[in-house]
Design a protein that fits this description.
Elements lengths: L5 E13 L4 E14 L4 E5 L6 H8 L7 E6 L2 E2 L5 H10 E4 L3 H4 L6 H11 L9 H11 L18 H14 L4 E5 L7 H18 L2 E6 L2 H7 L4 E6 L2 E7 H6 L4 H8 L6 H6 L41 E2 L5 E2 L13
Parallel strand pairs: 3-8, 3-9, 6-7, 7-8
Antiparallel strand pairs: 1-2, 1-4, 4-5, 9-10, 10-12, 11-12
Bound molecules: iron/sulfur cluster.
Length: 334
């Protein structure tokens, strides 16, 4: 069996907050384990504060886990030699949601894209950096490249800037791109084109994607044949093949998320039942509930749920669910 490209082994991440006199801790990620194969797409889904961005930064080597390991091709990234770590940082790229903040406003597009090419010596003999940057702009459908090379970030639209950011990630020939809400700040009409671009980068160039989003629809679209992991308050509550998990969600939290997704047909929308949560308040991540963290909101909670932490367990069909009552939770839609 092939070694995963990236693995998280029992990763936890704790942040300190407050003043030196009143310190408190927030455990943003709690005992998360996952694998990503080369060329795969994983959608990491959940509401704000669920820990998905922290996981993305741990995968990209920007955060060092307080517990557990991040393995790249089987090696702990924090025990790599200097040269290995440099290769890892080149091969695992992070794309943020805010393309404006990601690009230096005082540099032209050519200057921004040629810097990593020159830094890593990736300009092939017989070509100029300008030609190579132009080729990358063509790959992300910014054509003709001459119209974009000498522009500054503020002269481009949000969608064009995000294409530039993806092109910059491509210049260093990445194996994996951690894309953190890459389409959330782009006009709705341009989102599909960016998702299609990422799908093409995956299919034609073999680039893996860890796609971080709160939007189940885009997760389904981009990671259609891949995997999905659903996070709640720092823990993974359901994971498996996207089609399987979204067609037959078993965890009540995922059922609630799906039941809240708007549908365009008003007749279908009116006939669909929402999963009635016991509370709409998200608990404080600094003081998460004991037992199953979802129990104060879960309509199916029983006594065991407030005292015992459920662990991810394999179900028939290939998904894994962290719920004490997973065999008895009614199928959704109810
Ligand atoms: Fe709900 Fe209990 Fe399952 Fe948690 S373990 S999701 S509280 S039924």
């Amino acid at each position: 069996m092939n070694q995963p490209l990236i693995s998280l082994r029992d990763v936890s991440m704790t942040f300190r907050k407050g003043s030196p006199w009143r310190r408190s801790e927030v455990r943003a990620v709690d005992h998360v384990t996952l694998d990503m194969d080369e060329g795969s797409i994983l959608a990491l889904v959940g509401e704000s504060g669920c820990g998905k961005t922290t996981i993305g930064k741990a995968i990209a080597g920007l955060y060092r886990p307080t517990q557990g390991q991040v393995l790249y091709r089987g090696k702990d990234i924090w025990k790599l030699s200097k040269a290995e770590f440099r290769t890892y940082r080149r091969e695992v790229q992070l794309v943020h949601q805010d393309s404006f903040a990601a690009l230096n406003p005082s540099l032209t597009i050519y200057q921004s894209l040629s810097a990593p090419l020159l830094q890593y010596g990736l300009v092939p003999a017989g070509k100029t950096a300008r030609t190579v940057v132009g080729e990358y702009l063509e790959m992300v459908e910014l054509t003709p490249p001459d119209q974009f090379l000498d522009k500054y970030p503020h002269q481009l639209s949000g969608g064009q800037r995000q294409r530039v950011v993806l092109a910059r990630a491509l210049t260093v020939r990445p194996k994996l791109i951690v894309a953190d809400e890459p389409v959330s700040m782009v006009d709705v009409s341009l989102r599909l084109a960016l998702l299609n671009l990422m799908a093409r980068m995956n299919k034609e160039m073999g680039v893996s994607f860890a796609y971080i989003t709160h939007d189940l629809a885009t997760a389904r679209y981009l990671a259609g044949q891949g995997q999905i992991s659903v996070m709640y308050l720092g823990e993974m509550v359901e994971t498996g093949p996207v089609g399987q998990v979204l067609a037959t969600p078993r965890h009540p939290y995922l059922q609630a998320l799906l039941s809240a997704v708007p549908v365009p047909d008003p007749i279908v929308a009116r006939s669909r039942k929402m999963l009635a949560l016991r509370s709409l308040e998200m608990p404080d991540p600094g003081a998460p509930p004991a037992g199953c963290r979802f129990h104060p909101r879960c309509p199916y909670a029983e006594a065991v749920c407030s005292s015992k932490v459920p662990t991810l367990e394999a179900m028939e069909g290939g998904d894994r669910v962290a719920c004490h009552l997973k065999e008895r939770i009614p199928a959704w839609p109810v």
